[in-house]
Amino acid sequence: MEKINVGILFGGRSSEHEVSRVSASSIIKNISKDKYEIYNIGITKSGEWFLFSGDVSEISSGKWEENRSNKKAFIFPDTGARGLMVIDGTGKTEFIKLDVVIPVLHGKNGEDGAVPALLQLANIPFVGCHMGAASACMDKVITNSVLTYNGINKPKFNWFYFYDFQNDAAKYIEETEKLIKKYPMFVKPANAGSSVGISKVNNKEELIESIYIAAKEDEKVLIEEGIDGQEVECAVLGNNELFASAVGEIAPSNDFYDYDAKYLSGSSELYIPAKIPEAVAKEIQEIAQKAYKVMGCSGLSRIDFFVEKDTNKVILNEINTFPGFTDISMYPKLMEYSGIKFAELIDKLIALAMSRGN
Ligand SMILES: Nc1ncnc2c1ncn2[C@@H]1O[C@H](COP(=O)(O)OP(=O)(O)O)[C@@H](O)[C@H]1O
Ligand SMILES: [Mg+2]
Fold first, then answer.
1. What does the pLDDT profile of the chain (358 residues) look like in tens digits?
2. pTM for the full model?
3. Each residue of 183-201: b (16+ CB within 10 Å) or e?
4. Which of 185, 220, 231, 317 for mutating ligand 1's site (highest number of atoms within 8 Å of CB)?
Protein backbone atom coordinates (compact mmCIF):
# COMPACT_ATOMS: atom_id res chain seq x y z
CA MET A 1 0.00 0.00 0.00
CA GLU A 2 1.34 3.40 -0.93
CA LYS A 3 1.92 5.74 1.97
CA ILE A 4 -0.12 8.91 2.38
CA ASN A 5 2.00 12.08 2.38
CA VAL A 6 1.18 14.09 5.50
CA GLY A 7 2.44 17.60 6.16
CA ILE A 8 2.53 18.56 9.83
CA LEU A 9 2.65 22.29 10.48
CA PHE A 10 3.89 23.52 13.86
CA GLY A 11 4.94 26.70 15.68
CA GLY A 12 3.62 29.84 14.07
CA ARG A 13 3.39 33.57 14.65
CA SER A 14 1.26 33.24 17.78
CA SER A 15 1.44 33.63 21.54
CA GLU A 16 0.76 29.87 21.60
CA HIS A 17 3.84 29.02 19.49
CA GLU A 18 5.49 26.90 22.22
CA VAL A 19 2.35 24.88 22.99
CA SER A 20 1.96 24.17 19.30
CA ARG A 21 5.45 22.67 19.17
CA VAL A 22 4.63 20.31 22.05
CA SER A 23 1.27 19.37 20.48
CA ALA A 24 2.97 18.64 17.14
CA SER A 25 5.65 16.52 18.84
CA SER A 26 2.97 14.32 20.40
CA ILE A 27 1.26 13.89 17.06
CA ILE A 28 4.54 13.08 15.29
CA LYS A 29 5.46 10.52 17.97
CA ASN A 30 2.07 8.84 17.85
CA ILE A 31 1.25 8.87 14.12
CA SER A 32 1.66 5.57 12.24
CA LYS A 33 4.90 5.62 10.22
CA ASP A 34 3.69 2.59 8.25
CA LYS A 35 0.69 4.36 6.83
CA TYR A 36 2.07 7.86 6.46
CA GLU A 37 5.14 9.62 5.09
CA ILE A 38 5.64 12.60 7.37
CA TYR A 39 6.88 16.05 6.38
CA ASN A 40 7.41 18.38 9.33
CA ILE A 41 7.02 22.02 8.48
CA GLY A 42 8.04 24.49 11.15
CA ILE A 43 6.96 28.13 11.23
CA THR A 44 9.18 30.39 13.34
CA LYS A 45 7.79 33.01 15.72
CA SER A 46 8.55 35.65 13.12
CA GLY A 47 6.68 33.66 10.46
CA GLU A 48 9.41 31.96 8.39
CA TRP A 49 8.64 28.50 7.03
CA PHE A 50 11.09 25.56 6.90
CA LEU A 51 11.03 21.86 6.12
CA PHE A 52 12.57 20.19 9.18
CA SER A 53 13.94 16.65 8.88
CA GLY A 54 15.76 16.37 12.22
CA ASP A 55 14.79 14.54 15.38
CA VAL A 56 11.34 15.22 16.85
CA SER A 57 12.88 16.14 20.23
CA GLU A 58 14.25 19.30 18.62
CA ILE A 59 10.69 20.43 17.86
CA SER A 60 9.50 20.57 21.47
CA SER A 61 12.76 22.10 22.69
CA GLY A 62 12.76 24.73 19.94
CA LYS A 63 16.26 23.66 18.76
CA TRP A 64 14.81 22.71 15.37
CA GLU A 65 15.33 26.30 14.18
CA GLU A 66 19.11 25.91 14.40
CA ASN A 67 19.20 22.70 12.34
CA ARG A 68 21.47 23.30 9.34
CA SER A 69 19.61 20.88 7.09
CA ASN A 70 16.44 23.02 7.22
CA LYS A 71 15.26 24.17 3.84
CA LYS A 72 12.82 26.96 3.14
CA ALA A 73 9.48 25.39 2.40
CA PHE A 74 5.93 26.58 2.18
CA ILE A 75 2.48 25.57 1.05
CA PHE A 76 2.14 26.69 -2.52
CA PRO A 77 -1.26 28.28 -3.26
CA ASP A 78 -1.20 27.26 -6.94
CA THR A 79 -3.45 24.19 -7.15
CA GLY A 80 -1.12 22.62 -9.75
CA ALA A 81 1.40 21.81 -7.04
CA ARG A 82 -0.98 20.64 -4.29
CA GLY A 83 1.80 20.64 -1.81
CA LEU A 84 5.04 22.02 -0.62
CA MET A 85 7.52 24.18 -2.49
CA VAL A 86 11.01 23.52 -1.12
CA ILE A 87 13.97 25.78 -1.87
CA ASP A 88 17.51 24.66 -1.09
CA GLY A 89 20.56 26.84 -0.34
CA THR A 90 21.41 27.24 -4.03
CA GLY A 91 17.91 28.47 -4.85
CA LYS A 92 16.90 25.21 -6.55
CA THR A 93 13.20 24.48 -6.05
CA GLU A 94 11.42 21.18 -5.67
CA PHE A 95 7.74 20.35 -5.12
CA ILE A 96 6.47 17.68 -2.73
CA LYS A 97 2.88 16.62 -3.17
CA LEU A 98 0.95 16.48 0.10
CA ASP A 99 -2.17 14.33 0.36
CA VAL A 100 -3.23 15.96 3.62
CA VAL A 101 -1.97 18.57 6.07
CA ILE A 102 -2.37 18.69 9.86
CA PRO A 103 -2.09 22.35 10.86
CA VAL A 104 -1.12 21.87 14.51
CA LEU A 105 -1.29 25.59 15.16
CA HIS A 106 -2.94 27.27 18.12
CA GLY A 107 -4.09 30.87 18.24
CA LYS A 108 -3.39 33.67 15.83
CA ASN A 109 -2.13 33.20 12.25
CA GLY A 110 -3.14 29.56 12.23
CA GLU A 111 -6.11 28.39 14.27
CA ASP A 112 -7.86 31.66 13.41
CA GLY A 113 -8.45 30.48 9.85
CA ALA A 114 -5.36 32.00 8.21
CA VAL A 115 -3.73 28.65 7.48
CA PRO A 116 -6.98 26.83 6.58
CA ALA A 117 -7.50 29.65 4.04
CA LEU A 118 -4.12 28.93 2.45
CA LEU A 119 -4.83 25.18 2.37
CA GLN A 120 -8.23 25.81 0.78
CA LEU A 121 -6.59 27.97 -1.90
CA ALA A 122 -4.02 25.26 -2.53
CA ASN A 123 -6.79 22.64 -2.66
CA ILE A 124 -5.04 20.37 -0.17
CA PRO A 125 -7.23 18.42 2.28
CA PHE A 126 -6.48 19.34 5.88
CA VAL A 127 -7.45 18.37 9.40
CA GLY A 128 -9.85 20.69 11.19
CA CYS A 129 -12.30 23.45 10.50
CA HIS A 130 -12.56 25.48 7.32
CA MET A 131 -11.44 29.11 7.47
CA GLY A 132 -14.93 30.50 8.15
CA ALA A 133 -15.63 28.34 11.20
CA ALA A 134 -12.06 28.71 12.44
CA SER A 135 -12.13 32.50 12.36
CA ALA A 136 -15.67 32.72 13.79
CA CYS A 137 -14.67 30.48 16.73
CA MET A 138 -11.49 32.45 17.27
CA ASP A 139 -13.42 35.69 17.71
CA LYS A 140 -15.19 35.36 21.07
CA VAL A 141 -17.62 38.20 20.25
CA ILE A 142 -18.76 36.44 17.08
CA THR A 143 -18.97 33.10 18.92
CA ASN A 144 -21.02 34.64 21.75
CA SER A 145 -23.34 36.45 19.36
CA VAL A 146 -24.03 33.49 17.07
CA LEU A 147 -24.50 31.01 19.92
CA THR A 148 -26.78 33.32 21.90
CA TYR A 149 -28.92 33.86 18.80
CA ASN A 150 -29.19 30.08 18.45
CA GLY A 151 -30.43 29.58 21.99
CA ILE A 152 -27.21 28.33 23.60
CA ASN A 153 -26.53 29.72 27.10
CA LYS A 154 -23.59 32.15 27.27
CA PRO A 155 -22.53 34.48 30.08
CA LYS A 156 -24.06 37.98 29.71
CA PHE A 157 -21.62 40.06 27.69
CA ASN A 158 -20.78 43.43 26.19
CA TRP A 159 -18.09 44.42 23.69
CA PHE A 160 -16.58 47.44 21.96
CA TYR A 161 -13.55 48.64 20.07
CA PHE A 162 -10.79 50.11 22.20
CA TYR A 163 -10.64 53.09 19.84
CA ASP A 164 -14.26 53.99 20.66
CA PHE A 165 -13.73 53.29 24.37
CA GLN A 166 -10.89 55.79 24.49
CA ASN A 167 -13.17 58.46 23.11
CA ASP A 168 -15.94 57.90 25.65
CA ALA A 169 -14.90 55.52 28.44
CA ALA A 170 -17.72 56.53 30.82
CA LYS A 171 -20.39 55.57 28.28
CA TYR A 172 -18.97 52.07 27.75
CA ILE A 173 -18.41 51.43 31.45
CA GLU A 174 -21.97 52.49 32.29
CA GLU A 175 -23.38 50.41 29.45
CA THR A 176 -21.36 47.37 30.58
CA GLU A 177 -22.39 47.67 34.24
CA LYS A 178 -26.02 48.07 33.22
CA LEU A 179 -25.92 44.99 30.98
CA ILE A 180 -23.92 42.64 33.20
CA LYS A 181 -25.22 44.05 36.51
CA LYS A 182 -22.65 42.55 38.92
CA TYR A 183 -19.00 41.86 39.54
CA PRO A 184 -16.84 39.84 39.11
CA MET A 185 -16.57 40.25 35.36
CA PHE A 186 -14.03 38.84 32.91
CA VAL A 187 -12.32 41.16 30.46
CA LYS A 188 -10.90 39.50 27.36
CA PRO A 189 -9.39 40.33 24.00
CA ALA A 190 -11.93 39.09 21.41
CA ASN A 191 -9.13 37.26 19.57
CA ALA A 192 -6.38 35.67 21.62
CA GLY A 193 -5.78 32.41 23.48
CA SER A 194 -4.01 30.72 26.37
CA SER A 195 -5.69 33.27 28.68
CA VAL A 196 -3.31 35.97 27.43
CA GLY A 197 -4.77 39.42 28.15
CA ILE A 198 -7.65 38.04 30.27
CA SER A 199 -8.45 39.50 33.72
CA LYS A 200 -11.01 38.83 36.39
CA VAL A 201 -12.21 42.17 37.79
CA ASN A 202 -14.07 43.00 40.99
CA ASN A 203 -14.82 46.70 40.59
CA LYS A 204 -14.93 49.63 38.19
CA GLU A 205 -11.26 50.60 38.66
CA GLU A 206 -10.07 47.09 37.84
CA LEU A 207 -12.47 46.97 34.91
CA ILE A 208 -10.97 50.09 33.34
CA GLU A 209 -7.40 48.91 33.97
CA SER A 210 -8.10 45.51 32.42
CA ILE A 211 -9.59 46.98 29.27
CA TYR A 212 -6.16 48.48 28.55
CA ILE A 213 -4.53 45.08 29.16
CA ALA A 214 -6.94 43.25 26.83
CA ALA A 215 -6.52 45.93 24.15
CA LYS A 216 -2.82 45.08 23.89
CA GLU A 217 -3.85 41.77 22.30
CA ASP A 218 -6.81 42.92 20.23
CA GLU A 219 -8.60 46.18 19.34
CA LYS A 220 -11.90 44.41 20.06
CA VAL A 221 -12.59 43.94 23.77
CA LEU A 222 -15.14 41.58 25.32
CA ILE A 223 -16.51 41.77 28.85
CA GLU A 224 -18.41 38.87 30.37
CA GLU A 225 -20.36 38.14 33.50
CA GLY A 226 -18.20 35.99 35.79
CA ILE A 227 -19.67 32.51 36.21
CA ASP A 228 -19.13 30.72 39.50
CA GLY A 229 -18.94 27.04 38.73
CA GLN A 230 -16.97 24.07 37.47
CA GLU A 231 -15.02 24.23 34.20
CA VAL A 232 -15.73 21.28 31.95
CA GLU A 233 -14.82 20.35 28.38
CA CYS A 234 -16.15 18.06 25.68
CA ALA A 235 -14.18 16.82 22.64
CA VAL A 236 -16.13 16.62 19.39
CA LEU A 237 -14.98 14.71 16.30
CA GLY A 238 -16.63 14.46 12.88
CA ASN A 239 -17.92 16.18 9.77
CA ASN A 240 -21.62 15.35 9.39
CA GLU A 241 -21.93 12.46 11.84
CA LEU A 242 -20.56 13.73 15.14
CA PHE A 243 -18.96 11.94 18.07
CA ALA A 244 -18.97 13.75 21.41
CA SER A 245 -16.58 12.40 24.03
CA ALA A 246 -17.10 11.98 27.74
CA VAL A 247 -16.95 15.28 29.64
CA GLY A 248 -13.76 16.22 31.47
CA GLU A 249 -13.16 18.77 34.19
CA ILE A 250 -10.34 21.18 34.96
CA ALA A 251 -9.72 22.37 38.47
CA PRO A 252 -7.44 25.38 37.99
CA SER A 253 -4.65 25.85 40.53
CA ASN A 254 -5.20 29.63 40.48
CA ASP A 255 -8.24 31.86 40.93
CA PHE A 256 -9.11 31.12 37.30
CA TYR A 257 -7.50 29.13 34.49
CA ASP A 258 -4.92 31.78 33.60
CA TYR A 259 -1.65 31.35 31.67
CA ASP A 260 0.21 30.39 34.82
CA ALA A 261 -2.30 27.70 35.80
CA LYS A 262 -2.35 26.35 32.22
CA TYR A 263 1.37 26.04 31.55
CA LEU A 264 3.62 27.15 34.40
CA SER A 265 2.58 25.99 37.84
CA GLY A 266 1.48 22.62 36.47
CA SER A 267 -0.71 21.89 39.45
CA SER A 268 -4.11 22.27 37.83
CA GLU A 269 -5.98 18.98 37.99
CA LEU A 270 -7.89 17.15 35.27
CA TYR A 271 -10.76 14.85 36.12
CA ILE A 272 -12.14 12.44 33.56
CA PRO A 273 -15.05 12.05 33.82
CA ALA A 274 -16.04 15.40 35.29
CA LYS A 275 -17.56 15.40 38.76
CA ILE A 276 -21.05 16.26 37.53
CA PRO A 277 -24.35 14.34 37.42
CA GLU A 278 -24.75 12.06 34.40
CA ALA A 279 -27.76 14.01 33.12
CA VAL A 280 -25.70 17.22 33.08
CA ALA A 281 -22.90 15.45 31.17
CA LYS A 282 -25.43 14.26 28.62
CA GLU A 283 -26.81 17.78 28.24
CA ILE A 284 -23.25 19.07 27.68
CA GLN A 285 -22.61 16.49 24.95
CA GLU A 286 -25.80 17.55 23.20
CA ILE A 287 -25.07 21.28 23.43
CA ALA A 288 -21.48 20.67 22.29
CA GLN A 289 -22.72 19.00 19.11
CA LYS A 290 -25.29 21.71 18.49
CA ALA A 291 -22.72 24.49 18.96
CA TYR A 292 -20.29 22.65 16.65
CA LYS A 293 -22.91 22.62 13.91
CA VAL A 294 -24.07 26.19 14.53
CA MET A 295 -20.49 27.46 14.14
CA GLY A 296 -19.90 25.30 11.04
CA CYS A 297 -17.10 23.21 12.55
CA SER A 298 -15.70 20.08 10.92
CA GLY A 299 -12.92 17.64 11.75
CA LEU A 300 -12.56 18.43 15.43
CA SER A 301 -13.13 21.00 18.14
CA ARG A 302 -13.02 21.11 21.91
CA ILE A 303 -16.01 22.85 23.43
CA ASP A 304 -15.55 24.38 26.88
CA PHE A 305 -18.31 25.02 29.39
CA PHE A 306 -19.12 26.15 32.89
CA VAL A 307 -21.51 24.23 35.11
CA GLU A 308 -22.91 26.85 37.43
CA LYS A 309 -22.63 26.21 41.15
CA ASP A 310 -25.91 25.29 42.91
CA THR A 311 -28.08 25.48 39.75
CA ASN A 312 -26.05 23.10 37.47
CA LYS A 313 -26.94 25.42 34.61
CA VAL A 314 -24.76 24.63 31.55
CA ILE A 315 -23.14 27.73 30.06
CA LEU A 316 -20.83 27.56 27.05
CA ASN A 317 -17.48 29.33 27.42
CA GLU A 318 -15.59 28.91 24.15
CA ILE A 319 -14.78 26.69 21.18
CA ASN A 320 -11.20 25.73 20.30
CA THR A 321 -10.87 24.53 16.72
CA PHE A 322 -7.35 23.21 17.21
CA PRO A 323 -7.14 22.37 20.91
CA GLY A 324 -3.96 21.36 22.72
CA PHE A 325 -2.72 17.97 21.56
CA THR A 326 0.09 17.18 23.98
CA ASP A 327 0.13 13.76 25.65
CA ILE A 328 -1.55 15.31 28.69
CA SER A 329 -4.00 17.57 26.85
CA MET A 330 -7.72 17.27 27.41
CA TYR A 331 -8.75 16.53 23.79
CA PRO A 332 -6.69 13.34 23.27
CA LYS A 333 -7.30 12.30 26.90
CA LEU A 334 -11.08 12.60 26.52
CA MET A 335 -10.97 10.63 23.27
CA GLU A 336 -8.84 7.94 24.86
CA TYR A 337 -11.24 7.67 27.79
CA SER A 338 -14.08 7.38 25.28
CA GLY A 339 -12.30 4.48 23.51
CA ILE A 340 -10.25 6.18 20.77
CA LYS A 341 -6.48 5.85 21.29
CA PHE A 342 -4.08 8.59 20.15
CA ALA A 343 -2.83 6.85 16.96
CA GLU A 344 -6.37 5.87 16.02
CA LEU A 345 -7.54 9.43 16.65
CA ILE A 346 -4.97 10.71 14.15
CA ASP A 347 -6.13 8.08 11.62
CA LYS A 348 -9.71 9.25 12.09
CA LEU A 349 -8.80 12.93 11.72
CA ILE A 350 -6.88 12.23 8.51
CA ALA A 351 -9.74 10.13 7.13
CA LEU A 352 -12.22 12.92 7.96
CA ALA A 353 -10.00 15.48 6.20
CA MET A 354 -9.62 13.34 3.10
CA SER A 355 -13.29 12.41 2.86
CA ARG A 356 -14.37 16.04 3.27
CA GLY A 357 -12.09 17.03 0.42
CA ASN A 358 -11.73 20.74 0.40
N1 LIG B 1 -17.27 34.40 31.99
C2 LIG B 1 -16.39 33.72 32.73
N3 LIG B 1 -16.71 33.35 34.00
C4 LIG B 1 -15.82 32.67 34.79
N5 LIG B 1 -14.57 32.36 34.39
C6 LIG B 1 -14.18 32.72 33.15
C7 LIG B 1 -15.07 33.42 32.27
N8 LIG B 1 -14.42 33.63 31.11
C9 LIG B 1 -13.19 33.10 31.26
N10 LIG B 1 -13.02 32.57 32.48
C11 LIG B 1 -11.78 31.95 33.01
O12 LIG B 1 -10.68 32.35 32.19
C13 LIG B 1 -10.12 31.24 31.49
C14 LIG B 1 -9.69 31.66 30.10
O15 LIG B 1 -10.78 32.19 29.38
P16 LIG B 1 -11.16 31.67 27.92
O17 LIG B 1 -12.34 32.46 27.48
O18 LIG B 1 -11.32 30.20 27.94
O19 LIG B 1 -9.92 32.14 27.05
P20 LIG B 1 -8.74 31.35 26.26
O21 LIG B 1 -9.18 31.32 24.85
O22 LIG B 1 -7.56 32.21 26.45
O23 LIG B 1 -8.64 29.97 26.88
C24 LIG B 1 -11.20 30.19 31.53
O25 LIG B 1 -10.66 28.89 31.39
C26 LIG B 1 -11.82 30.45 32.91
O27 LIG B 1 -11.01 29.93 33.94
MG1 LIG C 1 -10.14 28.59 27.23
1. 799 999 999 999 998 999 999 999 999 999 999 999 999 999 999 999 999 999 999 999 999 999 999 999 999 999 988 999 999 989 999 999 999 999 999 998 999 999 999 999 999 999 999 999 999 999 999 999 999 999 999 999 999 999 999 999 999 999 999 999 999 999 999 998 888 899 999 999 999 999 999 999 999 999 999 999 999 999 999 999 999 999 999 998 888 888 878 777 667 889 999 999 999 999 999 999 999 999 999 999 999 999 999 999 999 999 999 999 998 899 999 999 999 999 999 999 999 999 997 7
2. 0.96
3. ebbbbbbbbbbbbbbbbbb
4. 317
Handedness of CA 146, 223, 306, 322 (dihedral sign): positive
Pocket of ligand 1 (CB under 6 A): 155, 186, 188, 192-195, 198, 224-227, 231, 252, 256-257, 304, 317-318
Cis peptide leading into 184, omega within 30 of 0? Answer: yes
DSSP string, 265-313: S---EEESS-SS-HHHHHHHHHHHHHHHHHTT--EEEEEEEEEETTT--
Nearest atom (ligand 1) to Cα of 261: 27
Strand partners, 232: 249, 305
What pairs with residue 250 in β-bridges? 231, 270
The beta strands (E) that lie in the chain are given as: 4-11, 36-43, 49-52, 71-75, 83-87, 93-97, 100-103, 157-161, 185-189, 199-201, 220-225, 229-238, 242-251, 269-271, 299-308, 314-320
Q: Contact at 8 Å (CB) between 70 and 51?
A: yes
Phi and psi, residue 69, nearest 5°: -85, 0
Asked if 134 and 323 count as a contact pair (C-beta separation under 8 A), the reply is no
Using DSSP, state whether 239 is helix, strand or coil. coil
197: left (phi over 0), alpha (psi -120 to 50) or beta: left
